[in-house]
DNA sequence: CACTTGATGTTCT
DNA sequence: GAACATCAAGTGA
């Protein structure tokens, strides 16, 4: 059930970003397990992508994680407040990553309600990358974790959305990336209420 | 409903 | 000093 390391080695980050929709993201913290179905992702295409932290081959202490082999997590702090969770894909020195932007709560919803201080009936509990990470209890201690380990991992529960329900569009919040901001590298499930921003075509 | 605003770490200028 | 892969609470219609 847990996705094997080989799954993350695929070098086509666009395929993986789409394929991760419907997969189930788990975390276990102090014995508390929470999980949610991934319903929204964005692809970041390594050194050729102006919206990527690794654009142009940039390496800093923070981005070093992106250059590892696929199958680990990349968590960083955005706007000084929010933790954003990414799946590092491809092989070593190919800094491709998939940002998880929204999940649908599946397991441990009461724990998520406590973390978010709002009822799970509100879509905002896990809509948007900062909220989804917080609902799962992800913070920077989850950076560079092995996704086949027992703290954070992804399972395949056989959930598959019909292709007509998978919608692509330009990525959110990357206007600074100029022409790359227009690339249709955001993938989400049509009509799912946990999807952030415009969720209709 | 649309818009405004405050919170504030990391990185680059 | 400024910009940034954001959120939630507030305002005013």
From TrEMBL:
<dbReference type="InterPro" id="IPR036995">
    <property type="entry name" value="MPG_sf"/>
</dbReference>
<dbReference type="InterPro" id="IPR003180">
    <property type="entry name" value="MPG"/>
</dbReference>
<keyword id="KW-0227">DNA damage</keyword>
<dbReference type="InterPro" id="IPR011034">
    <property type="entry name" value="Formyl_transferase-like_C_sf"/>
</dbReference>
<keyword id="KW-0378">Hydrolase</keyword>
<keyword id="KW-0234">DNA repair</keyword>
<dbReference type="GO" id="GO:0003905">
    <property type="term" value="F:alkylbase DNA N-glycosylase activity"/>
</dbReference>
<comment type="similarity">
    <text>Belongs to the DNA glycosylase MPG family.</text>
</comment>
<dbReference type="GO" id="GO:0003677">
    <property type="term" value="F:DNA binding"/>
</dbReference>
<dbReference type="GO" id="GO:0006284">
    <property type="term" value="P:base-excision repair"/>
</dbReference>
<dbReference type="Pfam" id="PF02245">
    <property type="entry name" value="Pur_DNA_glyco"/>
</dbReference>
<protein>
    <recommendedName>
        <fullName>Putative 3-methyladenine DNA glycosylase</fullName>
        <ecNumber>3.2.2.-</ecNumber>
    </recommendedName>
</protein>
